[in-house]
Specification:
Length: 17
């Protein structure tokens, strides 16, 4: 997943892991 995709799903500022 990309950072933006994770940010949209989790709603938290996650890094691209």
């Amino acid at each position: 997943m990309k950072a933006l995709e994770l940010h949209g799903k989790t709603g938290l500022p996650v890094e691209e892991c």
